[in-house]
Structures are given as C-alpha cells and as structure tokens.
Amino acid sequence: MADMVLHGTLVDDGGEVCACGFEWGETIALGNITGVQSKVSGETFDQTITGLLGGITYYFRAFATNSAGTTYGAILSFVTMGGGATVSVLPATNIAENHATLNGHMTDSLNHFGEVRFQYGTTPAYGMNTPWQDGFFTGDDFYANIVGIAEGSVYHFRAQFRGSPIVSSGDMTFSTLSSLGPVTMVTEEIMQLLEG
Questions:
Q1: What is the CATH number of domain 86-175?
Q2: Does the pLDDT of residue 104 top 50, yes or no?
Q3: Which of 68, 107, 148, 178 is the most buried (most CB within 10 A)?
C-alpha cells in the first residue's frame, strides 16, 4: 500500500474564505473526497491519501467551496510506485447497433493464474460488469461479448484482473452504430412528376 500527498493552490477565493480539498479515484469519475482546509486567495493546501495500490494510475482534482458555489481544478493523474499485476485494454471489435466485443491482454500476472473481466458503461463510472473468466496468465488475450447496449452511443470500458488484489487497465471508448432505416430523397424533379 502507498500514500500520496496532493497539493493545490487557491487562486481566487471570490472575497470569501473557501473550504479546499480534493476528489480522487482510479477513474476520471473520481468517487472519493478528502477532508477540507479553510483557505483564502494565494494559499496552498494539501491532503494525504492512503492505502493506494502499487502500479496503479489514480486521478484527482482540487476543489474550493464557499457560499458562491464550488469550483474545480483540472483532472490530473499520477501512477503509484511498486510492481503489481498489470492488464491492458485493447480496442473493441465487432461493433454493431446493440452489441460489441471487448478485448483485453494480460500484461503481467506475476506468475499467477487469475480471473479477468470488463467494466463498461456510457460514462467513466462504468456501472456494468461482464462475468469473471478464470484461468488467465501473462501474455493471454481475452474478450467478452456484450449485448443489449444502446445504438448510436459512446461506451467507456476497461479490463480488470483479479489476482490479489484486483487491478484495472486504463479507460477506452467505442461508439455503437446507429440504424438510420430507409432513406428517401425527394428532389424537385420528382415532385414535379408526382404533381404532373
């Protein structure tokens, strides 16, 4: 497990003291919030986040809140030190209106067989999981077919490996096809013929 200190600077408090802190997580959806510190324009603030896994990309952004509302900084990222199992996501294939094939690669299983799956959804928070598949080792490719997804939509997905602990790949997207149905073009000449 690793610790990381996040640093921020309050650029403009809008004339009122702000509660400053950070949101963070393993995806750009973030999901975790640190404690806050009271700051005014030009002051720096920091928070330590603990229990981070080695070799994982974490995302974070600063925020400042007062009676005028909440302002957020840009989403940034860092990778924790330490070797762990790694899994990669590959581009989706067989994409159609309502289904696709998600693909992944077991980059390094640390000489252990383990289970793999995908998380997917229309946002980086995912929300849906494919079933775990057992028996994957370093160098193995794997895939899962997903069905019943919405046409003409962008989907986010990532691969996961469950050894000890669960590790995730980065995020990737694909767009489902859109069924347009039959298209009829009516030109001025056709209109004249129809009226004639």
A1: 2.60.40.10
A2: yes
A3: 107
